[in-house]
């Protein structure tokens, strides 16, 4: 049951990767665009990110295919073509090591009343091939709780060599006891 709060951990998990919180877009051309951290929207259907420049209230947008990643404070949003696919999608990066990356995305459930959110967690190799994945949701039932319980074991299996991540996960898990 205590594993239910892992999603909150995921969103803040890579805050240790940057010494200060800077918000910017790194384009495929290497251009760094500084953006406001309090305005950021993702449209996964149209594959567009909406943002505002630091000194402007005008909304701008950039297509997934035009940027490599976006740092939004401690969070990183990156585009990937998984398993050599031609389709590009955006994911939040939770952890990166020299050999693996932990990413996730959300998908609203169209069949429900909008209260159910589906999450997909992927573990990737260096070539963006999916090594493992886990689909779970935010529902509070036995089946959903059981599936979310697998999150910790997957992280431990694939990222046991990532001391910072493991310390953070164990520390967070201990606070839930």
Write structural notes for this entry.
This protein has 177 residues and is of the alpha+beta class. The protein contains four helices and ten strands. A ten-stranded antiparallel β-sheet has the order 4-3-2-1-5-6-7-8-9-10. Helix 3 packs antiparallel against helix 4. 23% of the residues are buried.
Care to give the gist of this entry?
This protein has 177 residues and is α+β, with helices and mostly antiparallel strands. It has helices at residues 6-12, 142-148, 150-159, 163-175, and strands spanning 24-27, 32-43, 48-53, 59-63, 67-72, 75-80, 89-96, 101-108, 117-124, 130-137.
The parts where pLDDT drops under 50 for at least 5 residues are 1-19
Largest sheet: 10 strands, antiparallel
Assess the beta-strand content as a share of residues.
Answer: 35-45%
Counting DSSP H or I runs of 4 or more residues, the number of helices is 4
Mean pLDDT: 83
Number of strands: 10
How far is the N terminus from the C terminus?
10 Å
SS-based structural class?
alpha+beta
Strand-and-helix sequence, N→C?
A: HEEEEEEEEEEHHH
Shape: globular
Share of residues in helices? 10-25%
Q: Compute the gyration radius: what is it?
A: 17 Å
Strand sequence of the main sheet, in spatial order? 4-3-2-1-5-6-7-8-9-10
């Amino acid at each position: 049951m205590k594993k239910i709060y892992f999603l909150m951990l995921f969103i803040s998990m890579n805050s240790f990767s940057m010494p200060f919180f800077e918000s910017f877009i790194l384009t495929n051309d290497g251009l760094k665009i500084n953006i406001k951290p309090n305005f950021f929207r993702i449209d996964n259907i149209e594959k567009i990110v909406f943002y505002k420049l630091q000194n402007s209230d005008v909304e701008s947008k950039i297509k997934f295919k035009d940027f490599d990643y976006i740092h939004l404070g401690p969070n990183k949003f990156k585009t990937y073509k998984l398993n050599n696919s031609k389709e590009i999608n955006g994911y939040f990066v939770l952890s990166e090591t020299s050999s693996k990356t932990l990413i996730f995305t959300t998908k609203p459930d169209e069949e429900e009343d909008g209260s159910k959110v589906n999450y997909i967690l992927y573990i990737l190799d260096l070539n963006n091939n999916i090594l493992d994945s886990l689909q779970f949701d935010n529902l509070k039932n036995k089946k959903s709780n059981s599936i979310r319980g697998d999150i910790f074991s997957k992280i431990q299996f694939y990222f046991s060599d990532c001391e910072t991540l493991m310390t953070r996960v164990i520390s967070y898990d201990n606070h839930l006891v």
